[in-house]
Amino acid sequence: VQLQASGGGHVQPGGSLTLSCAMSGITLDGHAQAWFRQVPGKEREWVAVLSKSDPSKFYKDSVKGRFTMSRDYAKNAVHLQMNNLKPEDTAVYYCMSTIEGTPYFGQGTQVTVSS
Fold this sequence. Notes:
By secondary structure, this protein is mostly beta strands. It has strands at residues 2-6, 9-11, 17-24, 33-38, 45-50, 57-59, 67-72, 77-82, 91-99, 102-105, 109-113. 28% of the residues are buried.
């Protein structure tokens, strides 16, 4: 199983970025996917989750209305569209997928929001 995140960068407050996570060795259906983020000195926190069935979407309160997570079946990937970015969104972002309850993380991609 491999997860490859991309799309991070430096953006000004109010700007937008789209993160992508290409997955190999695992299908989208039947598994939950999520985005997490981590800043130095703090624990990794979840940001958005797509449940394995339905799928239902869940977002951290601080990103609701600004972030949108989606599946891309053509690319076997998940995306995180981030709008109206704030300095507090600065972090390393990680994608994750579960297999029978075991989480697999990809390498992180840095998102920096500053003027």
